[in-house]
Amino acid sequence: MAINLANGGTVAQQMAPAMFPLMLLSSLIGLAVFPLAGMYRRHTRSTSLRDIRLILRGSTMLVLCLMAASAVFEVTKAVPFAAFIIQLGLMILLLSALRVVARSRELNRQNARLMAEHQDKVPVLLVGTGASCDLFVRSLRNTHSKYQPVGIIDDARNTMGLYFHDVQIIGSLLDADRVVERLKTWDHLPRRLFLTEPITHFESDGIRKLTSWCESNGIAVSRVPGLGEEGQDAANGCIINPEEILERPQKAVERSMLREMFRGRRVLVTGAGGSIGSELARQIASFDPAELVMIDHCEFNAYSIDMDLSQNFPDVPRRMYIASIRNASRVNDIFERHRPELVFNAAALKHVPMVEMNPCEGVLTNVIGTRNVADAARNYGAIAMVQVSTDKAVNTTNVMGATKRVAEFYVQAQDRVTNGTEEETRFFSVRFGNVLGSSGSLIPLFQRQISNGGPLTVTDPRMERYFMTIREAVQLTLVAAASGLKMESSHGEIFVLDMGRPVKIVDLAERMIRLAGLKPYEDIDIEFIGIRPGEKLFEELFDASEKRHECGIPGVGSARPEGIPVARLRAMIRKLEQAAAEGDELAAKRLLKELVPGYGANGLRPVPISEFSSKPIFKSAGTNAANAVSQSEGENPELLPAGS
Questions:
Q1: Predicted local confidence at residue 14, as pLDDT
Q2: Which residue stretches of 358-495 are H helix?
């Protein structure tokens, strides 16, 4: 081709005999020269501008050798100098094109693989476009990272809309208010905010506004992990993020549907100072409600969430009440004053051992309190009341689960009353398992035990639980409520959140030790302390008597128990209220047994405090820890203290 182009597109007759010898010489010289130039030592997956230098070196060496060889043979002496120059240009172009095509094919395969894995990745937002950001984004292309960048916030102006590699710059820290307003419109918020430089590197006012907004919306803020450091957030004594412990992708929700539901409406949350209630209050506040009314019986919890909202959502009208949902007249006064349109009942006594020792208190809060809130929601014309429930209500063996099951029955019965009348108030229950990082749950307990040098206390190596993060549980609760309102008929729906596979508690303990940069059974031991009354080895999300249904909500299923007629339920609850108010524990447990199928006679005896002793029953011994299973004949072991 070079000879053809050198002669204006035709091959002179005297050049024809030189064609084949020249091609043969080029091939032989290329076989010798290209390896010497280092062209075959570079993988096509890493093709970059540096490869152009190798191609230039190899092509130049080949052409120079070819010119020297052509001068030796008579048949090739007539080849003009221009042909060699053209051949050099063509070789550089074609060899570069071949490598670019190979690299493109590899990138396409990699992108297809990343798209397939996209659902399993954690969406993250990056701050800064320096060297650390460059290295981090590049590393994501070539590793099976769990992170997926969804945007970059630059620390300079006039870069919005540009792409840094293949990640779009969504704004500047110098205009943090505009960035926050844009993030509010996103349907799917990032799970993490990574600072690619030390926080002092960024404009102070802008980074403060951004991090404050992220923290108020449950978006974890941290330094970008170095290469190979993913998953080491807890090393060197740092606080462990519950999201790092959950070995499955969190469910993503569409915020547009939630924004449509809550914007401009009056919303009431009970138990607003607790783990679930406070997250409910924060997420609802982010959707600009007309008013947010909160109830909590604990002064400190009420103060904490009120201060949190005043700092992060100062423009949202709110009212905090220190009150107990056990007090029906107080609940009615609050409802009459504010006339909430949407009601979320997150107030509950949730700790299995505590409620087992105080069954009457569990009845008064979990059953009577729920009845008071549900009745007030109907009497004052709320659009919907959502009951936060638990997997411990399913096939329960403890008082806490039995009381939450009765609460589910009451909410279901109220929804069926709505279906049979002209009233409009809807009632839903949302059921999920243990929440990572909630008050009194595993993460804070294990963190304290690791900080103290161990041991970590687990009741039995066989125990399994369902887990999800607080943010995930609350988001799906809001989605279930929003979607439930769109359903045309009322069936007493219990929405059950998809929590993935159950996790062994001992595996969770070992993982937290490793996240802290330590070795299980060597640096930190694990003690198996035996079971306590009311606990189960395995939790379930559906009762055997419930009919399971697809409700059309991603990440959410539904159950429809047969339920209890509302008249009988009201009568039994009145008896429960009387027994609990009088402190008659045995009578309260008998009534729970009559109401809750499967809550057996083993729950009717008084529980002495000695049965909740934290004295270890047996201890792990390194690799022999698994043998401890045979040493416990109990049926219902759990952690100390119990999870939520």
A1: 57
A2: 359-362, 370-379, 399-420, 442-451, 470-486
Which DSSP letter does residue 231 get?
T
Q: Does this model's pTM top 0.85?
A: no
> For residue 164, what are the contacts with CB-CB under 8 A and spacing of at least 6?
129, 133, 134, 137, 152
- The CA-based angle 591-592-596, given to 5 degrees, is 125
User: Could you tell me which of 426, 435, 348, 401 has the C-alpha nearest to residue 597?
Assistant: 401
Kindly tell me the burial class for residue 19, based on how many C-beta atoms sit within 10 Å of its own C-beta (0-12, 13-18, 19 or more).
Answer: middle
- β-partners of residue 503 are 465
Count of alpha carbons within 13 Å of 642, Cβ hemisphere only?
26
Q: Alpha-carbon distance 391 to 432, whole Å?
A: 6
Instruction: Provide the 3-class DSSP secondary structure of residue 492.
Output: coil
Nearest of 155, 173, 154 to residue 164 by alpha carbon = 154
> For the chain, what is the radius of gyration of the CA atoms?
33
Sheet holding 163-164, edge to edge: 163-164, 167-172, 147-154, 122-127, 192-195, 220-223
H helix runs in 468-565, sequence order: 470-486, 505-515
Amino acid at 621: A
The better pLDDT of the pair 523, 345 is held by: 345
Helix (H, G, I), strand (E, B) or coil at 322: strand
Residue 105 has, within 13 A of its CA and on its CB side, a CA count of 6
For residues 316 and 120, give the distance between their C-alpha atoms in angstroms, rounded to a whole number: 34
Give strand pairing partners of 168: 163
Q: What is the pLDDT of residue 380?
A: 94
Kindly report, residue by residue over 468-487, the tens digit of the pLDDT.
Answer: 778 878 888 888 888 777 76
Residues counted in the chain = 644
330, exposed or middle or buried, with CB in 10 Å at 0-12, 13-18, 19+?
middle
CA–CA separation, 370 and 368 (whole Å) = 5
Q: Kindly give, in sequence order, each residue whose CB lies less than 8 Å from that of residue 480, ignoring residues fewer than 6 positions away.
A: 386, 428, 430, 495, 497, 551, 553, 556
Digit-coded pLDDT (tens) for 612-633? 444 443 344 333 333 333 223 2
CA pair distance 488, 386, nearest whole angstrom: 17
Preceding amide of 641 cis, omega within 30: yes
- 181 Cα distance to chain centroid: 23
Distance CA 288, CA 35 (A): 66
User: 116-125, 280-289, 497-506, 585-594: which range is least confident on average?
Assistant: 116-125
- For 178, residues 6+ apart whose C-beta sits below 8 A from its C-beta are 171
370-379 vs 399-420: helix axis angle to the nearest 10?
20
- List the beta strands (DSSP E) in 158-307: 163-164, 167-172, 192-195, 220-223, 266-270, 291-296
CA-closest candidate to residue 434, choices 597, 607, 638 = 638
Buried b (16+ CB within 10 A) or exposed e, 568-579: ebeebbeebbeb
Per-residue pLDDT, 258? 84
